[in-house]
Specification:
By secondary structure, the chain is mainly alpha-helical. 80% of the residues lie in helices and 0% in strands.
Length: 141
């Protein structure tokens, strides 16, 4: 093989792995966006399940819309590429509050208490890849 052929083969391998990584990043972002959008809409519209769940966790019903508004701001920042790192950071803090709330009321660990951690890890996945040198495909770069 000639050096140019080796470079071409190496470039092809990199493109395939970058496409795969980009797809995984978009799927993670899509899942997080869908889940948090659903949760935000429930809270902003003050719908029954959101109010009941929030009250059951010890918060006043009047706080539901404020919590939804904070979640909306974090989500919008996360979805706008130039502010996505700030949005991911704010979402991590928001979801950390959810973990603390579930610990306080002794919710089941794997299904309730750690679920916000799973969402935060997905929200930060593309930003973590950017710091590992995959900035060419990451929307956070």
């Amino acid at each position: 093989m000639v050096a140019s052929e080796i470079t071409h083969v190496a470039d092809s391998a990199v493109r395939v792995s970058s496409k795969t990584a980009a797809t995984i990043g978009m799927l993670c972002t899509g899942f997080v966006a869908l889940f948090l959008t659903f949760d935000t809409v429930l809270k902003l519209l003050n719908l029954g399940p959101a109010v009941e769940g929030t009250v059951a966790l010890g918060y006043p019903a009047a706080a539901v819309q404020w919590i939804g508004l904070i979640e909306l701001v974090c989500l919008v920042l996360y979805l706008i590429p130039p502010t996505s790192i700030l949005g991911a950071l704010l979402l991590t803090g928001y979801l950390g509050g959810a973990v603390a709330t579930h610990v306080r009321v002794s919710s089941p660990p794997v299904t309730h208490t750690l679920f916000p951690v799973y969402v935060a890890l997905l929200a930060c996945a593309d930003c973590l890849y950017a710091t590992a040198g995959f900035g060419s495909w990451c929307r956070c770069a």
